[in-house]
Write a structure and sequence with these properties.
Elements lengths: L9 H4 L5 H30 L6 H29 L5 H6 L6 H30 L9 H24 L3 E2 L11 E2 L12
Antiparallel strand pairs: 1-2
Helix pairs in contact: 2-3, 3-5, 5-6
């Protein structure tokens, strides 16, 4: 994130995002969503043909769900950026704080599903490592643990962030053309209480 020091001109932070950034975000997110539907369709066809689905394929579907929702969040963030006036001199200079539910929701979605995607990728890598020699399927307990790690931990972190009011607009000066962690936070945040 850009830090505004005493000698920072707010105008220096304006227009850090150009149209190429937006086009690449829209194209990348759209292709990710399209790819997700292709994977879902292939999974459906495989299932209908009676072929068994192994664990890694199931984990890949869960990873795809996380990536698809993350792409929806990025897509909505880019669309929001095109229609917003986050980066006005007044808002950046005053670090204007406002409650925009759409921005907070988009921030929640991309934070939650971005972390879930990371955790699913990590779980798949560890699962492949652990089962390389042993071809037996995972136990139900291990699979439930995987789901707790990949969905539960990101949910807890993101819910804590939204409850402490730290998600929202960063005035397009730090994270890009989408909402993430608000640029207008106090220097300290009370974690308990």
């Amino acid at each position: 994130m850009y830090k505004m020091g005493n000698n920072t001109d707010p105008g220096d932070l304006i227009d850090k995002i150009n149209m190429l950034d937006i086009v690449l975000t829209l194209a990348g997110a759209s292709l990710s969503i399209l790819g997700a539907f292709v994977l879902f369709f292939a999974h459906y066809i495989r299932h209908k043909s009676g072929k068994p689905t192994d664990e890694v394929r199931q984990f890949l579907i869960f990873l795809t769900v996380a990536d698809m929702f993350n792409a929806f969040g990025l897509l909505s963030g880019a669309a929001r950026f095109l229609n917003s006036k986050d980066s006005t001199d007044d808002k950046v200079a005053a670090c204007h704080r406002y409650e925009e539910l759409g921005c907070i929701a988009q921030s929640y979605i991309t934070t939650l599903f971005g972390m879930s995607s990371f955790f699913w990728t990590t779980i798949i890598a560890f699962h492949l490592f652990w089962t390389y020699e042993d071809n037996s399927p995972s136990s139900i307990k291990k699979t439930l643990l995987y789901h707790f790690i990949t969905w539960g931990i990101p949910f807890a972190i993101t819910t804590a962030a939204v409850s402490k009011n730290v998600l929202g607009s960063d005035l397009s000066v730090g994270s890009g053309a989408w909402c993430w962690i608000s640029a207008c936070l106090p220097t300290t945040i009370e974690l308990y209480g």
